[in-house]
Amino acid sequence: MAIITDSIADMIVRIKNAFMRKHKTVEIPHSNKKHQILDIFKREGYIQDFQAVGEGVSKKLVVELKYKGTTSAITGIKRISKPGLKVYSSVNNLPKVLSGYGTVIVSTSKGFLTDKEARKENVGGEIIAYIW
């Protein structure tokens, strides 16, 4: 079993690969951070649903992917902040993806928020990923 240093990047790659292979679901090892990020994906309409399955060490997140016909709901997804290079932004400098059509996921003092929610709450933070 390989040691994963960036579990969020691992989750993003698993979701990307599942969409490329036209899978209906994908399993991801559970963590509270991933659970919060997937909650944003669901609220923003990028995935159909997800649920935590199992107990203890074998707990997983089963993600139900969303398609529009044969096209995936996620056109692109990119990890921004990495363990070796954290990227932070103040509320005034939060980036916009595709002129506001995409979503920026920000880790703030109030939890994981989208760029729109962070602007509304008037908080900046670590830029986790872009999704469109």
From TrEMBL:
The keyword Ribosomal protein applies. InterPro entries: Ribosomal_uS8 (IPR000630), Ribosomal_uS8_sf (IPR035987). SUPFAM superfamilies: Ribosomal protein S8 (SSF56047). The keyword RNA-binding applies. Keywords: Ribonucleoprotein, Ribosomal protein, RNA-binding, rRNA-binding. One of its GO terms (cellular component) is ribosome. Belongs to the universal ribosomal protein uS8 family. Part of the 30S ribosomal subunit. Contacts proteins S5 and S12. One of the primary rRNA binding proteins, it binds directly to 16S rRNA central domain where it helps coordinate assembly of the platform of the 30S subunit. This is Small ribosomal subunit protein uS8.
